[in-house]
Amino acid sequence: MTLAPETTDLKVELALDGDWFAVCDLSMLLPGRGVAALLPDGRQAAIFRDRSGELFAVDNRDPFTGAAVLSRGLTGTHQGRPFVASPLLKQRFDLASGQCLDDEEVQVATYKVRTA
Amino acid sequence: MSTDTPTIVLVGHGMVGQRFLEALAERGLTATHRVVVLCEEPRPAYDRVQLTSYFSGKTPEDLSMTDLRFIEDHGIELRVGDPAETIDREARRVTARSGLVVDYDVLVLATGSYPFVPPVPNKDAEGCFVYRTIEDLLAIEEYAKKATTGAVVGGGLLGLEAAGALKGLGLTSHIVEFAPRLMPVQVDEGGGAALLRTIEEMGLSVHTGVGTQEIVVGEDGAVTGMKLSDGSELSTDLVVFSAGVRPRDQLARDCGLTVGERGGIAVDEQCRTVNDPHVFAIGECALAADGRVYGLVAPGYEQAETAAATIAADEAAFTGADLSTKLKLLGVDVASFGDAHGTAEDCLDVVYSDSRAGLYKKLVIGRDGTLLGGILVGDAEAYGTLKAFTGSVPPVAPEALVLPAGAGAPAQLGPSALPDDAIICSCHNVSKGTIRGAVTDHQCTTVPEVKKCTKAGTGCGSCVKVLGQLVTAELEASGVEVDKGLCGCFSQTREELYEIVLALRINTYQDLLDRHGREEARGGNGCEICKPAVGSIIASLAPTIGASGYVLDGEQAALQDTNDHFLANLQKNGSYSVVPRIPGGEIAPEKLIVIGEIARDFGLYTKITGGQRIDMFGARVEQLPLIWARLVDAGFESGHAYGKSLRTVKSCVGQTWCRYGVQDSVRMAIDLELRYRGLRSPHKLKSAVSGCQRECAEAQSKDFGVIATANGWNLYVGGNGGATPRHADLLAQDLSDAELVRLIDRFLMFYIRTADRLERTSTWLERIPGGLEHVRDVVVHDSLGICDELEKLMQAHVAHYRDEWAETINDPEKLARFVSFVNAPDTPDPVVAFVPERDQMKPDLPLLSIGMRPAEDVLEGSAQR
Ligand code: SRM
Ligand SMILES: Cc1cc2nc3c(=O)[nH]c(=O)nc-3n(C[C@H](O)[C@H](O)[C@H](O)COP(=O)(O)OP(=O)(O)OC[C@H]3O[C@@H](n4cnc5c(N)ncnc54)[C@H](O)[C@@H]3O)c2cc1C
Ligand code: SF4
Ligand code: FES
């Protein structure tokens, strides 16, 4: 997570095995919504930008249904923690830690994300 | 195989077995012992009590009670599909079917019961079933596909559940009960009569006082009927035996443990077998120290706790339990609790009976006024409270407790009158004090939190209502004002937010949140509850408050639920469905052909929906714009199947073709659909227009339904299909076209203004003070003087309507969002895959850890759940 200044030609990058992997232009991210990115190893990441410009990335796969849809969920803040709610069965996931807020035993992977 | 750590072997992984494991873990015994579980069924423990809910859509995974992580974390060796075959008590050794041999220090038998099948000829014929396991249900479901009639032997609690399930599978259902009344164990004669009436009204045939003498089979050996003891014959394709259960004590018999005369492994108050201190028996297989075999789960749980405590060398005893029950199915309220039959000496009855209304309520009262038990048929509202009062003297007179509300009942007895030690949830033995503690000491503020914290309400569910009342009462008592706010971000209700948005012309969510949100939510990101709700209010009022009428414009795009965001319905594998509008269900052949061509070209699954139009399933997100470009080109527009907005206005063919029709119902349906299309509302809106009283369009099950009369149109409102069906109420009669439209305009706008989020017109009409009369006053007689405004709001909506799909395909910036991956827009999501089925295709979703259903072919072609 980094605070992203509002500049149009900035790239959003994810940390993968120590390297930074460029995903898209920052302008592709609508505050409050996500996008999905395909990673080199075939995994998928869901990347979000909140109202203040902060960026988050978690695994795109919804662990409850198996569908790769978390990028299409609604985001929000719960007790100060940013979250995304799965669009399928509505479980919420903390965007910073990947922890499911509705089932303490479930977690999704998170990625470091920055703009450059 | 002997190790240094002592070994506990559990035989049977049913509901009680699982609870026993949890009790072991809670006491730390799983850390100090090796725990081996022999489980006969092909799946770990599941919720047998809720078994029947499989037929209302629960999957075997939903029913599971076993968290595999729990099993793993506690190092429990769970052997699924491997029953115990022999016990050598001398050597303290169990041998399983797989050949596994385990030496035990403690052996716990939790083998449950088996369904009793009366020894009638051909009882094992093809088409005969029992009702105990998930496998039984899968087999019944499969067989029922070829059957039209089913009969249940046994009219007890389970038999009625089974009969209801058969009816739900579309079979004509019979119940054959040997006793002179239904549910003979729970209800008395009066209750049986009220119950019989209700059950028969539901279309089930009941035969009481007759026994089954023989199952009749056809040449192929499959069931064709049954011979009854009164000489009659009942033809049926399928028989379910539900004539009681017997303890599974064979293992115990074989190794010389004492069993009761009528079965059941004899145990003492610590649940230890009377012969062998190393062997325990719990649950339905045990004959408790009070001489009873309990067929309910709550006493079994208590026995599980007792056995675990005893093994941990703590003090505990099981001395007996309560037999309260409530029927969970069939839409009939039946409950019995405590000493329902009044067996206590000198007890008295208080009975209220109204056989016309199918009501029967009886309370059994002791000489000193103590409530001992009771029976409730037809209305079991008070079950939770009464059950909890059992054993104490209620604070109001007993007759007040059985009289229906309004019929002179002086006081309504709420759960707040209960003493702290009253048991609210008998499945998990949770007292009122514990629930109050959850609210006061553990800061639980919602029913789900209290359920999680105390386990109350997570068994049969019959106490959830009382639980809700208690939580609210407790919150109020502790000075917490019960928050009626929309969510954690807004303390206002949806109705209040609507008024704020309209009055102050607020047209962005952020503005509303920052100015009117809760202090702590201002400046934040909101949440998944208020975003779509506010998005909907803004969309409903868009032209009036100066917001864009296009839901993907600017900030509005971020507020929409995923379906609205992609203007399509998300399916279970991440693909989407596409539903073009077909107003009134009328469609010209050319347009039908276009739909066919598009579906073929994109390989979509097509289905005629229940709303008189066509759904195309399986579109990947990047295909949506291509599909819609072709649809728009052919003159189609969005059907808003994804939105909380107008869905369809169904029509019957009406006067134009039908010999009975008195008005042109198709034209009116099309007019209404085109007028209200795109109107965002608190929940979806459905409508229908029928050409005469025969009502082929089912208008009375719609939010607003119209039926033609010789003089015009009758308008019905507040109808609903779905989970809680409701017949619509007549709002006004013999309206002209213009009057009809004007009334609907007002009605819809009044609903949009005052309803809660996700509240259909049916629930809204039942909730708002004054109900239908009030709504009629407002929209017909203009009692609030707002009709003018309501009509103007609707006119603004109609004038500004634009098709959102046409708008989207012409906007490159919006189209850029319809990609699988932001960095690989042309690569399809590999998770979205399909396999063929019946000449079309269906999603092929790699199931995750929940994939415990048996062989796929068992389920092939069965109803989608
Ligand atoms: C496609 C269809 C079933 C079919 O194959 O026929 C269908 C499919 C869905 N229905 Fe339905 N309903 C369909 C007709 C109905 C009907 C019959 C009717 O409209 O005449 C009903 C009962 C009538 C009623 O609503 O009162 C119906 C009662 C429901 C309910 C329960 C509503 C309630 O008030 O209890 C839901 C759940 C909800 O809305 O919360 C639901 C929800 C759904 C959803 C949206 C569930 C979801 O969120 O994924 C399904 C999505 C379909 C999709 O992806 O395209 N569907 N659904 C029907 C589409 C009709 C159409 O052309 O728009
Ligand atoms: C349709 C239905 C509805 C019900 N509704 C209610 C209700 O509303 N309220 C209520 O209180 N109760 C209800 N019950 C009863 C409740 O389900 C039982 O009381 C409860 O399941 C008993 O738990 P148990 O663990 O003793 O037995 P079970 O849950 O039957 O578990 C016993 C397990 O042991 C296994 N087993 C047997 N022999 C062996 C062996 N040799 N080796 C290994 N495993 C073995 C069996 O296969 C089974 O899986 C209902 C039952 C049914 C069928
Ligand atoms: S409702 Fe009346 S007019 Fe319409 S199809 Fe049925 S019988 Fe004909
Ligand atoms: S009484 Fe069964 S869940 Fe509470």
Automatic annotation (TrEMBL), chain A:
Report the PROSITE patterns cross-referenced here.
Answer: NIRD (PS51300), RIESKE (PS51296)
Name any one Pfam family assigned in the record: Rieske_2
Keyword Signal on this protein? no
Which intervals hold domain Rieske? 21-116
* GO biological process, alphabetically ordered: nitrate assimilation
State the source organism's domain of life.
Bacteria
Under the heading InterPro entries, the entry gives:
NirD (IPR017881), Rieske-like_NirD (IPR012748), Rieske_2Fe-2S (IPR017941), Rieske_2Fe-2S_sf (IPR036922)
The protein's name is Nitrite reductase (NAD(P)H) small subunit
